[in-house]
Amino acid sequence: MDVHSFASGPSMLPPSVVEAVARDMVDCAASGRSLLGLPFTSREFTEILGRAETYIRQLLAIPDGYHVLFLQGGASSHFTLLPMNLLGNLRQADYVETGLWSHRAAEAARPWCEVNISARGNRSAMPLPDDWQISAQSAYCHITTNETAEGLQLHTWPEKIDVPLVADMTADLLTRPVLMERFDLVYASAQKNLGAAGLTIVIVREDLLGKSREGTPAPLDYTLQATAHSKVNTPPTIAVAVAARMLEWITRQGGLALMEELNRKKSDAIYAIIDRSGFYRCNAAPPHRSMLNVCFKLPNAELDKRFLAEATAEGLLDLGGHVDIGGIRASVYNAVPEQSVSKLVSFMTEFEARRG
Ligand SMILES: Cc1ncc(COP(=O)(O)O)c(C=O)c1O
Question: Which of 173, 177, 293, 314 could be stapled to 151 by a disulfide with Cβ–Cβ 3.0 to 4.6 Å?
Answer without folding.
Answer: 293
